[in-house]
Amino acid sequence: MINLHKLLPAALLFAGLSTGYAQHTKPLITLKPLDPAFNALVSKNAKADILATGFLWSEGPVWVESQKMLLFSDVKANIIYKWTEAKGKEVYLKPSGYTGKIPRGGELGSNGLGLSTKGQLVICQDGDRVVSLMDAPLDKPTAKYTRIATGYNGKKFDSPNDLAFMSNGDIYFTDPPYGLEKNTLDPLKEAKYQGVYRISNGKITLLTTAISRPNGIGLFPGEKRLIISSSDSLKSNWYVYDLDKNGLLTNGKVFYSAQSATKHGNGLPDGLKIDKQGNVFAAGPDGIWVFNSTGKLLGKILVDDLASNVSFSADQKTIYVTNNHRVIRIKLR
Fold this sequence. Notes:
The chain has helices at about 10-15, 15-20, 35-40, 260, and strands at about 30-35, 45-55, 60-65, 70-75, 80-85, 90-95, 110-115, 120-125, 130-135, 145-150, 150, 155, 165, 170-175, 195-200, 205-210, 215-220, 225-230, 235-245, 250-255, 270-275, 280-285, 285-290, 295-305, 310, 320-325, 325-330. The protein is mostly beta strands and about 325 residues long. The strands form seven sheets. It has a five-stranded antiparallel β-sheet with strand order 1-24-23-22-21.
């Protein structure tokens, strides 16, 4: 993800934290249908509510059905939170992404989260610049980690960002520079490119360097195609690739371009999820963009703050959106 709000003046950045969201008067969401198929996915009576507030930058939501909980990162606070209907917001893991002893700033915590095929929590750890497993049961979280991806060809990653999981256990992930304190100019940056990678049986494979700011990532049903968002303000696109018989990327092309929308909208292409029918719910300028599997834009769920990522409930009738200083729930239908 790209943390656009860090470019805002401090008074604006923390306004939501100081005033509280109880005073929220504007509608949380506004629906913008562009195709009749949108109405089958998002009811005109869709409801939204704020689940939790007070974060520096929320990211990486994942619904854990077995525990009936939502996990998500506060990237700058180095914390993973959980939310449950019974108890609301609670600290789940700390530190979540940076375990070093030398003080540092920037986006040092966890970012993208997901569940492996074995039900383990997989974490993109920006500060440590690795992809790790939490070495503990989901219901007994402990800040103890096993690193499963630390670098490629002897060079450290910049800051692993988001994840997609194959049914065979392979993990695809993106590696933009946002977790480095000085971004691409950081003296600690080792690779000269930004990459998309795969973890397969402990082996790391570089899949592409063609996307300047790879961010959100997702596999379509059938696991034959992969979508990647680009949060480069000059190349604000979603890209789609075919997967060959070896799970490598081929035939890359633009799935949809948000370039014109970024000129006047709030935000860039970011995290995304794909439903069982292949519809894509993607964080982008001004909210959540909804596409069908061929790249047709069906409509948008406009949100009144920066949307960074999204997760489905188990029945896919609800989405959870990390939304700058807060997390919101949208009951689609």
